């Protein structure tokens, strides 16, 4: 975008983008609410009561919050933090209870198969985290590790095996794949009934159609919507802007907001005056992969901000030599928005939680378990 600002927006010297690293770091303690959110069923209705405010917001009057015309509470000196780590923990606990019930009732344990090709450190970390998450909630995990120079046919054979295995209810092919492989061919080979990543074109097509529902919703957009719902953000009739139009996040997020009856605009690299369009939004989902692109001046007072971006920038004061920032300039936006996700600790933990949720849904559907 012509208006893109790539520098760090903190008070430190301007930062340079590092090679992309997807490692997730634990969020700082100031992002954690002082009390846990009330337990409620997975995918609670949009009208569910908001989670408790962080301690810094405890003194804000409820009258001020109710008077706003935006999607969330009115803007304060500091936004209310959307704690994705806390919500993801709650969801995992709910999933574990459902899996235990299913096992006791019909003797079935959900199974998730992951195929990893190559030895990328970030991909290995993702797969390891997914395996730990499965074990924690009672999902059985299956893993195939193939060398970088494996053929596409080898990957397709493993997918076919998992497609026909009744103990496997979800199949995930870890991306990115090596350059010599055709992503589309491989992802399309996953049975739509087991496409827990939600990337199958038939799932995306059903998501886009009126009166149809996909078998699975892509995990990161689903996590974004779940955060909005669990924090009591009204979506129906509100203006929403999605920044970015990728098949993995941006496009499905826009479709989900539209299904929830928001009026949706998509901002992309050819959008003229993106800041003016974004400033009209009650809800903003930023998923473009550019550090600190969205400035405070782009934000409508009181808006709800979901920042999907995870971008490493140089930080000589950090022991690692870098730190992670989002697509939204947190220091500026948090002074204007009503709700905002931190990076890290916002959307990231929700992605794996939604993968577990999709796997459980698949097992329930296949075995007709309510």
From TrEMBL:
Pathway(s) this gene product operates in, as recorded in its UniProt entry: One-carbon metabolism; tetrahydrofolate interconversion
Keywords assigned by UniProt, alphabetized: Hydrolase, Multifunctional enzyme, NADP, One-carbon metabolism, Oxidoreductase, Photorespiration
GO molecular function: methenyltetrahydrofolate cyclohydrolase activity; methylenetetrahydrofolate dehydrogenase (NADP+) activity
GO BP: any one term: photorespiration
GO cellular component, one term: cytosol
CDD domains registered for this protein in UniProt: NAD_bind_m-THF_DH_Cyclohyd
Domain Tetrahydrofolate dehydrogenase/cyclohydrolase NAD(P)-binding positions: 218-365
Reactions accelerated catalytically: (6R)-5,10-methylene-5,6,7,8-tetrahydrofolate + NADP(+) = (6R)-5,10-methenyltetrahydrofolate + NADPH; (6R)-5,10-methenyltetrahydrofolate + H2O = (6R)-10-formyltetrahydrofolate + H(+)
Highest taxon in the source lineage: Eukaryota
InterPro entries for this protein: Aminoacid_DH-like_N_sf (IPR046346), NAD(P)-bd_dom_sf (IPR036291), THF_DH/CycHdrlase (IPR000672), THF_DH/CycHdrlase_cat_dom (IPR020630), THF_DH/CycHdrlase_CS (IPR020867), THF_DH/CycHdrlase_NAD-bd_dom (IPR020631)
Listed Gene3D superfamilies: Leucine Dehydrogenase, chain A, domain 1, NAD(P)-binding Rossmann-like Domain
Occurrences of domain Tetrahydrofolate dehydrogenase/cyclohydrolase catalytic (ranges): 82-197
Homology family: Belongs to the tetrahydrofolate dehydrogenase/cyclohydrolase family.
Function, in words: Catalyzes the oxidation of 5,10-methylenetetrahydrofolate to 5,10-methenyltetrahydrofolate and then the hydrolysis of 5,10-methenyltetrahydrofolate to 10-formyltetrahydrofolate.
Quaternary structure annotation from Swiss-Prot or TrEMBL: Homodimer.
UniProt xrefs under PANTHER family: C-1-TETRAHYDROFOLATE SYNTHASE, CYTOPLASMIC, C-1-TETRAHYDROFOLATE SYNTHASE, CYTOPLASMIC-RELATED
Name assigned to this protein: Uncharacterized protein
Organism of this sequence: Leersia perrieri
